Amino acid sequence: MASRIPTVLTSDELMDKAFSRASKIDKTGATALDHKKKTALAKVTASGDIIVTTLNGYVDRFPRIEKENDFFPELVDLTIGIDRYKRSLGAMNWAANKVEKLKNESLRNIRRTKDASYIESTRSGFYGRLASVLKQISADLLFLQDAKNKFRKLPNIEPNVATAVIAGFPNVGKSKLVGALSTATPEIAPYPFTTKGIIIGHIQDGWRKYQIIDTPGLLDRSLDERNDIEKQAILALKYLTHVLVLILDPSGSSGYPMDKQLALLDSVKRGFPGVPIIVAESKSDLFVSDSARLKFSAETGENMDVLRGNIMNELKKIRFEEEE
């Protein structure tokens, strides 16, 4: 996504680009006045078109954020700020239209006159008004360049792919589970609210593909212990979560007692109402409790086919509009 967004120039850089192009223009004319007029017309046209094309390019190539109550808009709102983002893109559109009008007005005035000094003053005046317009959007240009950098760091998650999200305390075996379930080596992608990034794996089942995601640093302690930003990050994650898999480790090797792990389970259930939750106990090669929960070992493969089947059964229930 970020790869298609161009580098956003500052207002000074944009003016330098326009003036540099215009300064090289020199047209021939039948008379001195004709030469001056044709050159001025070409300079105004070139400098104005460069600005208009560049600004419209920003509007066209930055992602459109329209749909509400979805993962990507929520994530953008958290990391960039949707209202400010839309205002800045709106400022680009306003400035492009303003420059186009100023250009056409200056061109008309130059074409109509036979006064060489007026031609020069009109061209010079256009440059000054051009600089004034760009100065008004200088803060928006800086904001959009910063937004581009933040877009580059957002994880490449497919919102229209049924997704299972893994929850549980650190060291309970979540990452190993993602690796064992995935048909290829999972990728580690940046996520603005975790220290380790998120781990994204894919499960292929015939023609359908599913995502399985671990979010270290987010769903590994009670939601009540989260700050506001983290809570918002989890809210964004909820739009992506079609199935939640919570892993418990009764072996004690993770360093977290079962009462805390069960409290996390209760917290997750409250935080993800309506989302199917699969609960399973890991590390059955080390310890097996007397609970009725599914026991598995990603290390030995014990009951991995059962856990995978349970997850797949829930994911297969998810249908998107284009599939219906």
Mean pLDDT: 89
* Spatial separation of the terminal alpha carbons: 27 Å
List the strand order in the largest sheet: 2-3-4-1-5-6-7
Helix/strand order, N-terminal first: HHHHHHEHEEEHEHEEH
The count of helical stretches stands at 10
Say what the CATH topology of the largest domain is.
Rossmann fold
What is the name of the CATH superfamily of the largest domain? P-loop containing nucleotide triphosphate hydrolases
Q: What structural class should be given to the helix and strand makeup?
A: alpha/beta
Radius of gyration: 29 Å
Q: Which quaternary structure do these chains form? A: single chain
User: How many beta-strand elements?
Assistant: 7
Approximate strand percentage: 5-15%
Query: What is the correct CATH architecture of the largest domain?
Result: 3-Layer(aba) Sandwich
Task: Indicate the percent of residues in helices.
Answer: 40-55%
Largest β sheet strand count, sense and barrel closure: 7 strands, mixed
